[in-house]
Design goal:
There is one protein chain. The protein is an alpha/beta fold. Among the domains are: 3-230, Rossmann fold; 257-361 and 569-611, Transcription Regulator spoIIAA (2-Layer Sandwich), CATH 3.30.750. Helices cover 33% and strands 14% of the residues. It has helices at 3-8, 45-48, 52-63, 77-86, 115-125, 166-182, 187-194, 274-278, 287-301, 319-332, 349-356, 372-377, 384-396, 415-435, 468-479, 494-504, 511-519, 533-542, 572-583, and strands at residues 35-41, 67-73, 104-108, 140-144, 160-162, 200-201, 206-210, 216-221, 229-230, 258-261, 263-264, 283-284, 305-309, 336-338, 363-368, 401-408, 444-451, 487-491, 566-567. The strands form 6 sheets. A 6-stranded mixed sheet has the order 2-1-3-4-5-6, covered by helices on one side. A 4-stranded parallel sheet has the order 15-16-17-18. The longest helix has 21 residues, at 415-435. It is globular. It binds iron/sulfur cluster (SF4). Iron/sulfur cluster binds at residues 267, 280-282, 591, 595-598, 600-601, 609, 611.
Length: 611
């Protein structure tokens, strides 16, 4: 660590964010590392260290001989100020080497509102922002994560995107780079070769032209690039790399626990959910593999909490076998086992009772819409009876804290649907009055509404977003119908979700807007402390871009979409069909009732979709 950095650290909040040296971090001899990767998470240490994808890929890269991957996080504002004041360039935690000295700079991007952090981190590193300004093989910038499923807003800045799951594609990229470096390739040659790896999208190999109304006229691939790039998946999760020696952070992080991913993909098909579609097909890990990985991870880390994660953990077929093994182990070792994202319809009383013997946490449900009509539109296959039956189970089992999440602005939503939320909440309260085994503590019902953001690769990808003013009107309407003191209602402010919608469905004309926003001081937009909406509005105005073009306009079904070059496995025909069914109020049963032909099984070569 430089002397200067040592002097700066005591002047900033949480210096442990910046020092590295945690238990299980991977250090290598720099002289033996032919390829050095700065693996950047475009948010703070606390968020990045909680990211399972980052943990996995950190391990995958460091398993490779000749490769040393180190972590880099976005600094908090006080540290950024100190870095700029003292000319300290952004560095990687393991060796404190400046990021600009690395061969490759990788980003994992899971949230659209991190885009300014990417530019800010490159700027703090002293690395040119634009791909075309980085002309040599040094400092190749690549990115992955769910936001790569519409990479266009970042097309000016990122040299290439790796689409889908990274366990297999990442070593292929690094091996090619190793060869390119040894053979002294040009950057152009490297990009041409890396674009031949399935799952790699090089934005500069695609030319976009526009119609007079601003919509995209054509996307033309150049230099032999494919018309569409299909995402990569790992077929067999049982044999896939999993890091059982996770880094134990030395300061508090958001999810300070071991995390076991029980399966990937989702059988449900909620029509608003990008992850639900873009993570298909369904593949699971065997319970015995999970148990072994759980024990190894806990023993290697000393964590006292483990969570079973996935998009809908109660859909994991071997949940009973796994929890039957894991609960006694956790109980014996005083480890808290949490099973989040359980669905209301199959949250079994048996599992609730078993988990209740461990530390008790609140119940969380996401009915998303207040009426059955709208739940059918969004294909949230969940009835009011199921929600109330689950609450009844929970209340009679001693729970007295419920969180209910909804969205406002969903396609076809009316005031009746908005008020349906209030009705449902009162039915939950009534259920508590009738069935609570412990009324002394009183009931707390936390209700939160989010502003619907239409996302690419979903049946609602073409939908309009309602205006912020209309969203606020609906929030106030709902609030005016909450009278009970048991209810705590919070709604998300619309500004951030409006920008999220712009970035999620944006095209490459947004690059200058992001850059302008950064120039005007935008950073850490996901944090209330830093988010400044007017900075963004000024940036849009300066670039003559109307955000409404990407939000309230809605997209035509015959329009060329910015993400048409990206194939996540789900066919457009299926998405259109699902959209038609939404407007007809028809549900699509989950995959356990039969495959509905989403197309994702075409990604599987050796096994079938394991829904
Ligand atoms: S391929 Fe069929 S079973 Fe698999 S996720 Fe798609 S619809 Fe469901």
């Amino acid at each position: 660590m430089t002397e200067l950095l040592q002097r700066v650290l005591p002047t900033v909040q949480k210096p442990a964010r910046y020092t590295g040296g945690e238990y299980n971090e991977i250090k290598k001899d720099p002289d033996g590392a032919r390829v050095r990767v700065a693996f950047c998470f475009p948010d703070t240490y606390e968020i990045g260290m909680s990211n399972v994808g980052m943990r996995i890929l950190y391990g995958v890269m460091n398993e490779m001989e000749g490769v040393w991957c180190e972590r880099v996080f976005a600094p908090w504002g006080d540290m950024e100020e100190a870095m700029r004041k003292h000319n300290i360039p952004l560095w990687a935690l393991e060796s404190q080497t400046p990021v600009k000295d690395f061969d490759m700079i990788a980003f994992t991007i899971g949230y659209e509102m991190c885009y300014t952090n990417i530019l800010n981190m490159l700027n703090l590193a002293g690395v040119p922002l634009h791909s075309k300004e980085r002309t040599s093989l040094k400092n190749i910038v690549f990115a992955g994560g769910v936001c790569a499923f519409n990479p266009e807003p970042l097309a000016d800045f990122v040299d290439f995107f790796a689409l889908g799951e990274g366990e297999e594609i990442t070593p292929e990229i690094l091996s090619l780079y190793d060869r390119a470096k040894a053979e002294n390739w040009t950057k152009d040659k490297f990009l041409a070769e890396v674009s031949k790896i399935p799952g790699i999208y090089v934005p500069s190999f695609y030319e976009h032209t526009y119609n007079n109304d601003g919509t995209i006229a054509q996307i033309v691939p150049k230099y032999g690039a494919p018309k569409t790039v299909q995402k990569r998946i790992v077929e067999n999760l049982d044999t896939a790399y999993f890091p059982t020696k996770m880094i134990v952070s030395s300061t508090e992080i958001v999810h300070d626990r071991a995390n076991l991913e029980v399966f990937r993909g989702c059988i449900r098909g909620c029509r608003f959910c990008q992850a639900g579609f873009s993570c298909r097909p369904v593949r699971k890990k065997r319970a015995d593999v999970l148990y072994r990985q759980a024990v190894e991870t806990l023993e290697n880390s000393g964590h006292n909490e483990i969570t079973l994660s996935s998009l809908s953990t109660s859909d994991y077929r071997q949940l009973k076998e796994l929890t039957d093994e894991l609960i006694p182990y956790c109980r014996g070792n005083k480890i808290n086992l949490s099973v989040p994202s359980l669905r209301a319809d199959n949250f079994s009383r048996e599992l609730m009772e078993k988990l209740q013997t461990l530390r008790k946490s609140g119940l969380t449900f996401a009915p998303e819409a207040g009426t059955q009509r709208l739940r059918d539109v969004i294909n949230k296959n969940l009835t009011e009876d199921e929600i109330l039956a689950t609450c009844q189970n929970a209340f009679s089992g001693g729970w007295s804290n419920v969180k209910l999440y909804f969205m406002l602005g969903l396609p076809t939503e009316t005031d009746e649907d908005v008020l349906g939320i209030a009705e449902l909440v009162y039915k939950v309260i009534q259920t508590w009055k009738e069935h609570a085994s412990n009324k002394k503590r009183g009931l707390r019902v936390h209700v939160a509404t989010a502003y619907f953001v239409p996302k690419p690769h979903t049946p609602f990808q073409w939908e309009k977003q309602i205006t912020p003013e209309e969203y606020i009107r609906r929030c106030r309407l709902l609030k005016s119908h909450f009278y009970s003191k048991s209810i705590e209602y919070n709604y998300h402010e619309p500004d951030l979700s409006r920008l999220e919608a712009v970035m999620a469905r944006g095209d490459r004309r947004l690059g200058p807007v992001i850059e302008e926003a950064v120039r005007r001081g935008a950073m850490l937009d996901g944090w209330d402390e830093y988010f400044n909406y007017s900075t963004w509005l000024d940036a849009f105005a300066a670039c003559s871009i109307d955000p409404d073009f990407y939000t309230v306009r809605g997209y035509g079904e015959d329009e060329v979409l910015p993400w048409d070059t990206i194939d996540v496995g789900i066919t457009k025909r299926f998405l259109q069909c699902e959209r038609d069914k939404a407007y007809d109020g028809l549900i699509t049963p989950d995959c356990r009732h039969g495959c509905s032909g989403c197309g994702a099984n075409s990604l599987l070569k050796e096994v079938a979709c394991d829904a």
